[in-house]
Amino acid sequence: MERRLRFLLLFLLSAIALVGCESTQQTEAPKETRMEKVGTIVLELYPDKAPKTVEQITRLIREGFYEGQRVHRVDAGSDQVTPWVVQWGDPQSKQAAWEHLPVGTQGSGKQLPFEENDLKMERGALAMASTGEKVGGDSQMFLLGAGADQDTIAFLQGKYCIFGKAVEGLDIIEKIQRGDVLSMKIVSEEQGKPIRVEMHITREVD
Q1: What does the pLDDT look like over 125-146, one tens digit per residue?
Q2: In terms of C-beta distances under 8 Å and separation of at least 24 residues, what long-range contacts does 98-106 make, across chains too?
Q3: How far apart are CA 24 and CA 5, in angstroms?
Q4: Tens digit of pLDDT for each residue in 4-31?
Q5: Residue 129 in contact with residue 112, Cβ under 8 Å?
Q6: Hey, which bits of the chain come out as E strands?
Q7: Contact yes or no for 38/175 (Cβ under 8 A)
């Protein structure tokens, strides 16, 4: 009898322990990702200079294509500190495991023709990334940062379609890091005038 009571007591204690573990697992809160603001860049797009490019990019912005994408490329200039290029536009960058994917190889799936114009490659210039010189892009684009030296600017001029520029928040370009998260929104669109886009940049923090 005593042995049976000891067995029942041990069984009950084990059951209570299991229930306690299950309760702990169910109530454990998932880890939240905290975001901090890096800054906002205001872009102007020029449909009179690159009509097909601007049409596609604005359509993708309206569709939310760029929402939540990450900057996948930030390369420093000759000083090894200041970025000369900040690039984004690959939808793979939205995935949780983006760092293990070939980010920089994909786009929206609609190739554009190369649109040559007289816009200057300079700090703040917004241009299409592509697979080669004078080749039309798709959805990936880049901003030229202060780290671009004159040789780099001369090499890029005329080879990549420039379709806009940063008109506010130029200093934010140099603060952007690989992995920063983007949100793009058209804020002004009037006939015969540049289209204005706000690009908000945030960063995941521990």
Answers
A1: 999 999 989 999 999 999 999 9
A2: 98/70, 98/72, 99/179, 103/70, 103/72, 104/72, 104/73, 104/140
A3: 29
A4: 544 433 433 343 333 343 434 455 555 6
A5: no
A6: 34-45, 73-76, 83-88, 125-128, 141-144, 162-168, 181-188, 195-205
A7: yes
